[in-house]
Design a protein that fits this description.
Strand order of the largest sheet: 15-14-13-12-7-6-4-5-2-1-17
Number of strands: 17
Helix content: 40-55%
CATH class of the domain at 201-343 and 421-573: Alpha Beta
Distance between the termini: 35 Å
Structural class: alpha/beta
Shape: globular
Radius of gyration: 26 Å
CATH architecture of the domain at 201-343 and 421-573: 3-Layer(aba) Sandwich
């Protein structure tokens, strides 16, 4: 097969991905076309005139610089001063080719101009945010680096390999079409239970929603109060147990805690009618009952991560309404309770969008249920960072024919999970859309009027400073919702990297302040920065709520809850 035939097949195959097809058509537009499409928006004329004038000036300068470069001898060209200033165009191929360099520079100018115009749109803040997001998506998709015909680096590689890179890229593309997502890592390297999720433990309970794993103690004595982790149900639990050196699960066991972890089942058609109430009652509430029975302790320490924290807090509020308080403490990692400010995810949610979900997969659908596919959630989160999590791999995998390097976190990221439609729709409406969770008595969950103020257990609240999924100042609002004694800690980096930050790496930093003013900025102004991981601070805090030391159990479970299978169990291996 010739390289031309292979390239043609690759172009045709890309049509199987709608986003590629749309972006390719959009690339044919220029700034004038976009300006015309934005003409229906309210833009202040003086500001638009200024942007246009500056655009013309910079475009003229770029054209003149390109002409001068063509006229100057190539040997006099300074490669360092010719740097384009964007990592997508950092390869020498872009710099050495005057046409490619001019195209890349004009693209960056067009991008800056469009973003400036988006900033000038007059209207309510949500409309402005949506316009900025849409413009940013178009900009990232339209980069000349994304297209073989415009990417000199990919073209050079195709010539050097005599078309082999294009053939390899086509194979990657066809494989990704079959699996339904763009490969972000070499997934063949990893296997759950073999080289990820390897901390030793035993499944001691299961129902249709989750398996409960009890981990083998790594110390001769353990704290008398057990520990329960509630991971997010929109992802697999093993983000907390990727490798031994970065496993929060293993770290917790090493600190002398008898640890139980919920492993949510990947929803299938048999679960498509399950509700939020089902997830609360048959999820953490059931897990707490089992932990109490196995450990012989009325109280336990609890931890919830992301939506797992929302589910955990809801469950504890339900139990508090019933007069039960099984949690000696609660740790919330990057968790929303107050959904007033939800960051970029708010762009996707309004009344019409929620109603559409309710009519198609929610309790109001013709079949009274359905499934939200994990691949849809994964795509949404990826396009929040399109350069890093989408187009970077389009270029590397398909245009250059490269296999992405193995990376355990990205393997986990691609291991998506489905959710029951009624459960997801309830969550969408009552949290992101209406923010009902923090209104005392507004909601009835599991037959109880919900009031998060009843959750007065000591709470450790962690947020990540660069989190784009749960903005840190939104997570800080939890300090104003919960009524018990609280400790708020802010870590560096994002939603995942900020949480998974083992002490041995000696990376990043965290901020601590014991004062808890009503506003997040006021807290940060008084917080002190500490180098390294927040884990030791949490471990010290947790120790004070874990009770005395007792002999570690020799076997998992008890007479009622016996060994089912070794960790990590069957549920976590189910694919969406």
């Amino acid at each position: 097969m010739s390289s031309n035939e292979t390239a043609a097949q690759a172009d045709a195959a890309m049509g199987s991905f709608p986003e590629f097809d749309e972006s390719a058509r959009a690339f044919g537009s220029n700034v004038g076309d976009i300006l015309k499409s934005m003409s229906g928006l309210s833009l202040p004329l003086p500001a638009v005139s200024q942007v246009q004038s500056e655009y013309l000036r910079q475009a003229t300068d770029l054209w003149n610089q390109s002409l001068q470069r063509l006229q100057a001898p190539a040997k006099n060209e300074s490669k360092s001063t010719a740097n384009i200033g964007d990592r997508r165009f950092a390869a020498q191929d872009w710099i050495d080719n005057p046409g490619a360099a001019y195209m890349a520079q004009m693209y960056l100018l067009n991008a800056r101009t469009l973003l400036q115009l988006a900033e000038q749109v007059e209207g309510d803040e949500k409309t402005r945010q949506r316009i900025r997001f849409a413009v940013q998506q178009w900009i990232e998709a339209a980069s000349p680096s994304n297209y073989l015909a415009l990417n000199p680096e990919a073209q050079r590689k195709a010539l050097e390999t005599k078309g082999e890179s294009i053939a390899q890229g086509l194979q990657h593309l066809l494989k990704d079409i079959q699996q339904g997502h763009v490969s972000q890592t070499d997934e063949s390297v990893f296997e759950v239970g073999r080289n990820v999720a390897t901390t030793e433990g035993t499944v001691v309970f299961e129902n249709e929603l989750f398996q409960l794993i009890e981990y083998k103690p790594l110390t001769a004595k353990v704290h008398e109060k057990p520990m329960l982790f509630v991971p997010p149900c929109i992802n697999k639990f093993y983000i907390l147990d990727l490798q031994p050196e970065n496993s929060l699960i293993r770290y917790t066991v090493e600190q002398g805690h008898r640890l139980f972890v919920m492993s949510w089942r990947n929803a299938d058609d048999s679960m498509q009618q399950l509700s939020w109430d089902d997830y609360i009652e048959e999820g953490p509430i059931r897990a707490m009952r089992v932990v109490q029975d196995i450990a012989g302790s009325d109280t336990m320490n609890t931890l919830g991560f992301c939506i797992g924290g929302t589910i955990l807090a809801t469950a504890l509020a339900v139990l508090a309404a019933r007069g039960e308080k099984p949690a000696a403490s609660m740790t919330l990692l990057t968790t929303f309770l107050d959904f007033e400010e939800t960051g970029v995810l708010d762009l996707f949610i309004d009344e019409a969008a929620v109603q559409m979900r309710e009519m198609t997969i929610g309790a109001a659908s013709p079949n009274e249920g359905g499934l939200l596919k994990g691949s849809e959630l994964a795509s949404t989160f990826s396009f929040l960072r399109p350069n890093d999590l989408v187009w970077n791999y389009v270029v590397g995998n398909y245009l250059k024919g490269e296999t992405p390097p193995p990376f355990d976190l990205l393997y986990w990221n691609s291991d998506s999970t489905n959710l029951p439609g009624p459960m997801f729709c309830w969550y969408l409406r009552n949290t992101y859309l209406e923010n009902n969770l923090i209104e005392p008595g507004k909601l009835t969950v599991c037959g109880e009027a919900l009031d998060l103020r009843l959750v007065d257990t000591p709470a450790y609240i962690y947020a990540s400073k660069e989190d784009h999924i749960v903005p840190w100042d939104a997570a800080y609002r939890n300090t104003q919702v919960l009524t018990g004694k609280k400790r708020f800690v802010l870590g560096a980096s994002g939603h995942i990297a900020g949480v998974i930050n083992p002490p041995a790496k000696k990376k990043r930093s965290h901020w601590i302040s014991t004062a808890l003013p009503s506003k997040a900025d006021a807290w940060f102004d008084k917080a002190g920065e500490h180098q390294g991981s927040w884990w030791p601070d949490w471990a010290e805090w947790l120790k004070s709520h874990a009770g005395k030391q007792i002999a570690a159990p020799k076997t998992p479970g008890n007479r009622q809850y016996k060994t089912i299978e070794p960790a990590p169990g069957r549920y976590v291996k189910q694919k969406a």
